[in-house]
From TrEMBL:
The keyword Acyltransferase does not apply. It holds the Pfam family Fer4_20. The lineage of its organism: Bacteria, Bacillati, Actinomycetota, Actinomycetes, Micromonosporales. Pathway: Amino-acid biosynthesis. This is Glutamate synthase (NADPH/NADH) small chain. It comes from the Bacteria. It comes from Micromonospora palomenae. Residues 146-471 form the FAD/NAD(P)-binding domain. Residues 24-130 form the Dihydroprymidine dehydrogenase domain. InterPro entries: DPD_II, FAD/NAD-bd_sf, FAD/NAD-binding_dom, Glut_synth_ssu1, Glutamate_Synthase, Helical_ferredxn. Keywords: Amino-acid biosynthesis, Glutamate biosynthesis, Oxidoreductase.
Amino acid sequence: MPDPNGFLRYDRRLPARRPVPVRISDWREVYPPAGEELIREQATRCMDCGIPFCHDGCPLGNRIPDWNDLVRTGNWDAAVESLHATNNFPEFTGRLCPAPCEAACVLGIGGGQPVTIKQVEVEIADAAVARGGLRPRPVPAPTGRSVAVVGSGPAGLAAAQQLARAGHAVTVYERDDAIGGLLRYGIPDFKLEKEHIDRRLAQLAAEGVQFRTGVDVGVDVTAEQLRAEHDAVLLACGALQGRDTPETPGRQLRGVHQAMSHLVAANRVVAAAGDGRPALAVLPDGTPIDAAGKHVVIIGGGDTAADCLGVAHRQGAAGVHQLDLYPEPPETRDAARDPWPTWPWVLRNYPAHEEGGERVFAVAVQEFVDDGTGQVKGVRIAEVSVEKRDGRRIVTPLPGSERELPADLVLLAIGFEGTEQQPLLEQFGVRRNARGAVDARPDWQTDADGVFVAGDMHRGASLIVWAIAEGRAAAAAIHAYLGGVGELPAPVDPARQPLAAR
Ligand SMILES: Cc1cc2nc3c(=O)[nH]c(=O)nc-3n(C[C@H](O)[C@H](O)[C@H](O)COP(=O)(O)OP(=O)(O)OC[C@H]3O[C@@H](n4cnc5c(N)ncnc54)[C@H](O)[C@@H]3O)c2cc1C
Ligand code: SF4
């Protein structure tokens, strides 16, 4: 029986982040472990409210009150078991999830302080490693059926693990040189050290999952070959088509890049160099894309932009501006606009924001300014108002508000336009819809029979927790399609949306 008064005795507390000067001198994670005393105290704040809206906030349906109480009482092995019953990779979500569960926690009603669910989750995930490692589950007798998973992000990996554990032969195809999708080369080490991925991959491999890196499906191997070799195919290729701004004057200048080019280059250097100060980050063609000594302007206000900010500081940028088209959000939930338990529009301060740089809200770039040699030297911005008319976004510059910011490196972090246009789509006979995503039927099959889709490729650029949830659900559908015995858990269906006020 959970402690009904814990939240009255204890305030919400998170572990202190590592000091800024220390953490920007390396690439290690920002948060140290919370320690058993703090995390048991925080888990005690969960009152087991009876109708846990946090379950609905979490697309995985994580059994949050159950494992909070197991942590409170020190039953770590049972907490590990309970958490893994719904989540294949809590070490990723515990570190990276924006925690829609916390926005839906009863303790957050009326501006209160929700349980630190995500922190409890990561401590349980790390306890699993500390208490005997991520042991592979015994695999049942082979079913004789085989599945190809294309793409090795969290959606593909979650599906692969579920299917292997059901006895199917699973091969994951990845065009990169390493497995992990955006977790590997998109998200920097200061948010997720890569040993967490490697440890989980060892478990998947021991459970029978085969990995084939450096294979661009549609180029190195055709859809026809894949279909001939496997009984079903899951496409989990992500939504990696970066949005651009070709109409802005000066876009072609040297020094103006997609944010992902910057992040991938930086992550590759860290991967090669370990924990030392990295060498210069370069594009695949050798062009430097390093922020050292540079004035950096990051355009965009989301996860990707914050990751660029953290990377720029670790590379030694001279100064960083981060531009957002929208006005500064409020610090707290506007209950009229986003009532509890929905996800609120509030100012999100990532750890990268306390490391330096200046955020500029309600501005739009008018021009990337040429230094006369074809290299960017500045960004001309104007203050703007943004309104929605007939479903379209209208951006209006304020006359006389223009000014120039210095910029040697400009990073476009303005979102993604769905999955990439690539040969694989046509070969499998699947189409991108108006959002650039690939539609799924209610059983996760695409327009092509036996070809399933999950994760960002289906949902559009989203979150790791959604990718894992869709990977699990698609695996359940594939298992049924292959005539597997029993049912696998399916936390979401293809039409499921985040909690919303209707
Ligand atoms: C910079 C950045 C930071 C983010 N930070 C967070 C965060 O903090 N928290 C959070 O919850 N979410 C975050 N996200 C979103 C999150 O990373 C994604 O929602 C998630 O990774 C999607 O998983 P996925 O498996 O669908 O696809 P991905 O992780 O994108 O993986 C798709 C994989 O498919 C491979 N692929 C594509 N085509 C082929 C092909 N033809 N053949 C073989 N392989 C192919 C790609 O190389 C890639 O490895 C972030 C996203 C970005 C870009
Ligand atoms: S995965 Fe995300 S939403 Fe689900 S319990 Fe963990 S932090 Fe909350």
